[in-house]
Write a structure and sequence with these properties.
Elements (H helix, E strand, L loop, with lengths): L2 H15 L13 H13 L6 H9 L2 H5 L3 H8 L1 H10 L10 H13 L3 H21 L1 H17 L5 H31 L3
Length: 191
């Protein structure tokens, strides 16, 4: 069995074992890592390795399912393990408030390789549309955090970086439009 197929099977089983679903839609969680892989392949201007494809599928396994990084390394090799480690948030709730935790995670991401940062860009692209569509209030916080994240992802793949900026700007426009619509509706009763 090839590396990418095995990573897909492993990630599917890991997320299903903890009954993880997508927050806003309730769909199987594996749909998100699969989308991240597809975004990686679609928008990258440079070559994408099989290890990057596998890591895209596995990028949330350690963080969300209790699977240890050592098992990822033993199963998929050092290269995939290094990518997954770079993509796994290191902050814990006891580290402080959200701002403090996100800063810690940002510094961890900044130390990653360009290959890991390319996967992170694909993850950001995937998550942004869903959050803006389903949770406009949180999206304002999220988009601010992602704008900061893009600064440290600049040495990721240029095609993915450009798409991430495009998605971020489109999301900001969507939120701005929704604020205007709310204001108009608030005052419609006076007309």
């Amino acid at each position: 069995m090839d590396l990418v197929t095995w990573a897909d099977i492993f990630a599917t089983a890991a997320h299903a074992a903890v009954k993880q679903t997508r927050k806003y839609t309730g769909e199987p969680y594996i749909n998100h890592p699969r989308e991240v892989r597809q975004i990686l392949l679609k928008f990258a201007t440079g070559p994408i390795t099989l290890e990057q494809e596998a890591a895209a599928l596995l990028h949330d396994v350690v963080e969300d399912t209790g699977v240890e990084l050592d098992l990822i390394v033993a199963t998929f090799g050092e290269a995939v393990g290094e990518l997954v480690e770079s993509l796994t948030d290191v902050s814990k709730p006891e580290d402080g408030n959200r701002r403090v935790r996100k800063q810690k995670d940002l510094e961890h991401t900044a130390a990653g390789s360009p290959a890991a940062k390319s996967i992170k860009l694909a993850d950001l692209i995937s998550n942004t549309a869903s959050i803006v569509e389903h949770d406009k209030d949180f999206a304002r916080v999220y988009l601010h955090e992602k704008a900061r994240l893009l600064d440290v992802l600049a040495d990721g793949d240029s095609g993915l970086l450009n798409e991430a900026y495009r998605v971020l700007n489109a999301a900001r426009s969507t939120l701005q439009s929704s604020v205007i619509v709310k204001r108009v509706r608030k005052y419609e009763r006076f007309f």
